[in-house]
């Protein structure tokens, strides 16, 4: 089995595209999940080239080095956390990430900040703001419900954080009735 870590896989569509294209290219894929591809190979050099080609054509890259892999694991853990609402984490963000990545939080926080030039907490806020935008555009929830789904203490706190990140308040964004969301792989 060959395990490869991949940068910028942020959604189920990414998984589907990579899996289908690797199978089409003749790579014996065992598993594709956010940030990771596992495959069987009788000719690693050939299959590795096929993998690199498929990833490159779709805007992904292979991660090499334990620090880069750890940073991607943190990102994927946070993205997965926001997939199922209401937000379901027990304890603090730091304890959640330590458990998910099996790494001491002070180490992963230091590596993340150094590698990405942003703290884990600030990155998570940016992800949450993108989720807020998505929920506003879905028109299924009011602002209070959105704040509760994303585990904000109250709607005022969400509103202040949204304005600090976007430069507009929640109502202004809703009135735009336009998609001004950032792609999750571009957040930093």
UniProtKB/TrEMBL annotation:
The entry's keywords: DNA-binding, Transcription, Transcription regulation
Pfam families, A to Z: HTH_18
Lineage: superkingdom: Bacteria
Keyword set includes Glycoprotein: no
Domain HTH araC/xylS-type span(s) in chain numbering: 76-176
GO molecular function, one term: DNA-binding transcription factor activity
Keyword hit for Repressor: no
PANTHER family documented for this protein: ARAC-FAMILY TRANSCRIPTIONAL REGULATOR (PTHR43280), HTH-TYPE TRANSCRIPTIONAL REGULATOR EXSA (PTHR43280:SF2)
Protein name: Helix-turn-helix domain-containing protein
Organism name: Salegentibacter agarivorans
């Amino acid at each position: 089995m060959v395990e490869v870590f991949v940068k910028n896989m942020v959604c189920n569509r990414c998984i589907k595209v990579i899996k289908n294209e690797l199978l089409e290219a003749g790579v014996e894929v065992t598993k594709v999940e956010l940030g990771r591809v596992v495959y069987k190979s009788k000719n690693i050099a050939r299959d590795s080239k096929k993998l690199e080609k498929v990833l490159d054509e779709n805007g992904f890259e292979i991660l090499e080095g334990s620090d880069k892999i750890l940073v991607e694991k943190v990102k994927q853990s946070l993205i997965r956390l926001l997939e199922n609402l209401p937000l379901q984490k027990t304890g603090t963000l730091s304890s959640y990430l330590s458990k998910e990545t099996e790494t001491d939080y002070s180490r992963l926080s230091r590596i993340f900040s150094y590698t990405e030039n942003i703290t884990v907490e600030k990155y998570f806020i940016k992800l949450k703001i993108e989720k807020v935008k998505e929920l506003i555009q879905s028109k299924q929830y009011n602002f209070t419900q959105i704040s509760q789904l994303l585990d904000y203490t109250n709607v005022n706190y969400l509103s202040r954080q949204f304005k600090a990140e976007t430069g507009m308040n929640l109502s202004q964004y809703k009135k735009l009735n336009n998609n001004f969301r950032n792609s999750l792989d571009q957040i930093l």
